[in-house]
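Appendix B: complex inputs.
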Amino acid sequence: MDFSDNPEQAVFRRRFRAWLSENVPPEVPHESDAREAAERAWHRRLADAGYDWLSLPKEFGGQGLPESFEAIFNEELGRAGAPLPLGQGHLARAIAKFGTPEQKTVHLRSLLEHTKRWCQGFSEPGAGSDLASLATRAERFRGVDGAVRYRIDGQKIWTSDARYSQMCFLLARSEPDRRKHEGISVFLVPMDLRGIEVRTIVTAYGSNEFAQVFFDGVEVEAGALLGAPGQGWEIANFLLGFERGPADNGWIARMRRTIQGLEERLRKGELEVDAAGRIALARAEVALRVLEIQAQRTLSKRMGGDAPGAAGSVDKLLLTRADRAVHGVMMDLLGAEALSHRTPRLDDYFWSLAQSIFGGTSQIQRNIVAQRLLGMPRK
Ligand SMILES: Cc1cc2nc3c(=O)[nH]c(=O)nc-3n(C[C@H](O)[C@H](O)[C@H](O)COP(=O)(O)OP(=O)(O)OC[C@H]3O[C@@H](n4cnc5c(N)ncnc54)[C@H](O)[C@@H]3O)c2cc1C
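Resulting structure:
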């Protein structure tokens, strides 16, 4: 299989690399609020330069380029050590696929123009891995004006960036009489509605990007429902396939940059390594190479029109393994240098630990591989 660039891809890569060499901002700050502001500003700059929504179809306001351009874009960002873009593309794809013409006009535009930030209200205290057990209710009722509305009550947790978001892509149970997977719907909910409370969760490493979000009698118009009542599970799976897939290429290139940086410093004698360190470094290199090949394979399938689906779980598992290996050996080799003060490297290390949890834990990914790819019976 030949994964090298074709002439158009090569031109795009050269042009973007040249642009990056002039425009990459200094490392983003660690403090969450400052980080959010810096990442938004960076995203705007990319958009203003025309590096935005590359693979979203033209009919929805994207540039309609093949997914390979998206991968090149992410790869070059990672290679340059630039901040990665805000990951909202999977939400745009879901709205483009399942939305009404009005939802597409209103919400796709706000996503495309970056006028609104979105968060994802899926997990609950009693429904993480077993997401289909979610208990947040959306009860249909007719208002005094005769219009159909939904009243939302419940609680979400681990909602990334809720404190910065103006919209929530919310999963709630609207059809309590149906089987659990069939009773869930998606609602597109403005975060400034009466009855919504966002409580920040400060993590062990001092970040405040997570929140609990409480919904207490929140009323939304019927037009907030995305797709049909009870279609939420299908929409969530469609979206998660894109969240886990080769869009991670930017992270892979960033890991490659980290490994190359370590190897260079070892060759120059700036770092010391013992026998165990050499083995760990070799393991990280192998894990990264396997991941790079798998990401290319997935990308070529995706360009052939295949949605990522359950196979995205293989990528996620390989990504997690490589991430742990690369950042584990990085911490061993850098030692006190990485720990003495908050560095982007330390943030990358913490992120590598979270990698096995968000978007579905590694155990759940293995279940998906066993049951949906290999056809093993459920236990
Ligand atoms: C960085 C980060 C960002 C996140 N962002 C968001 C967000 O924006 N929105 C959102 O809704 N959620 C978000 N989450 C939450 C995330 O989706 C959940 O943490 C995850 O799905 C696991 O759920 P849980 O924490 O409730 O763990 P649990 O489901 O309680 O699992 C606990 C342990 O049991 C294991 N386990 C559970 N069930 C099984 C099973 N059937 N077979 C084998 N093992 C099992 C799990 O693998 C895990 O090790 C985020 C999490 C992280 C770390």
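The radius of gyration is 22 Å.
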